Amino acid sequence: MTNDQGNLRIIMMGTGPFAVPTFESLLESKHDVVVLVTRPLPKVRTRGKAPANPMREAANAHGIEVLSPDDVNAEAARKQLASLRPDLLVVCDYGQILSSATLAIARLGGINLHGSVLPKYRGASPVHCAILNGDEETGVTVIHMTPKLDGGPAIAVRTTPIGDDETTAELEPRLSILGVEAVHESINLLAEWDGESPIGVVQDSSQVSRAPCLKKSDGEVDWSHTAVAIRNQVRALKPWPGTFTEWQRPNGQVMRLILEEIVVAPSDAADIAPGTVIASDGKQLAVATGCGTISIRKIQPAGKRVMEIEEFLRGYPIPVGARLGRSEDSPSS
Fold first, then answer.
1. Bridge-based pairing state of the strands 32-37 and 66-67
2. Domains of the chain by start residue, with CATH
3. pLDDT tens for each residue of the chain, 333 residues long
4. Do the Cβ atoms of 160 and 178 come closer than 8 Å?
5. Sign of the CA dihedral with 264 first, then 265, 268, and 273 last
6. Which residues, 6+ apart, have CB-to-CB distance to 259 below 8 Å?
7. How many CA atoms lie within 13 A of 121 on its CB side?
8. Quick one: which of 117, 108, 113 has its CA closest to 142?
């Protein structure tokens, strides 16, 4: 139970890297992190290593016990966690939705650190969606959890501008650090909470937008989109699934091309079909879009390394007039 100094017994729930700064800050705080609950290790069918679990690694480094139930809401898992007498569940980048019964094992319920300013971008890919949609600002929200995904009242919010060239791989770590202070603010409020009074700000359901799990197919370029939208796609989908297109070479072979870095270029390509190469002089590769033109700076042919566009064009001279994008007889991704 909570002691006289407001120290809480906390169960941390997290799997991915977004949760690590919060986890490590709690380990250094006055609170008692009694266990980490994380996703179970997948079964490895080859000799390769299991996928990384940054939270498990952090817990092992600090000597914190790790539990990884297949279903955190199963009765056996709930009983095991309840036996630890937690005051609060702190959830971030975990991967399972907690039921009412699971939230009820802690006296103060649970809080979740989410990578957007809720109710915008509820779901698994909030950072990607903010960049994909060209937002100029984003942030983090700590909610008092309910069984509805990302639907609880907001206890603390922090905002930050999105850089013009910032990618998901750059923005996500910034947000994870931004969230640390918001989590501690929320814990301090809950430590003084009477358990009955309203807490936090109820989310406006009319402003809800979704951020679903990404699929590999989300990376395919639709050349009818604007140049700005395609540039945002490249920024948003790093490192996965990447942004890619296809080029049917003169020999009939299809080459998949991953767009690593592009810029929006000046253009008079209003009457040119989207996906058409309009400049290829050995130093630049410019492609028409539904509105505007992009210039590709770095590119990666499938199965090869990333190349500067000059190097790529020496080996693969794409001619002006070539069309990028899947042809009608190309197989779906």
1. parallel
2. 9-211 (3.40.50.170), 216-315 (3.10.25.10)
3. 444 467 999 999 999 999 999 999 999 999 999 999 999 988 765 555 666 899 999 999 999 999 999 999 999 999 999 999 999 999 999 999 999 999 999 999 999 999 999 999 999 999 999 999 999 999 999 999 998 889 999 999 999 999 999 999 999 999 999 999 999 999 999 999 998 899 999 999 999 999 999 999 999 999 999 999 999 999 999 999 999 999 999 998 999 999 999 999 987 667 899 999 999 999 999 999 999 999 999 999 999 999 999 999 999 999 999 999 987 545 554
4. yes
5. negative
6. 221, 230, 234, 242, 243, 244, 245, 296, 299
7. 22
8. 113
CB 84 within 8 A of CB 11: yes
Tokens representing 193 are: 């909470």
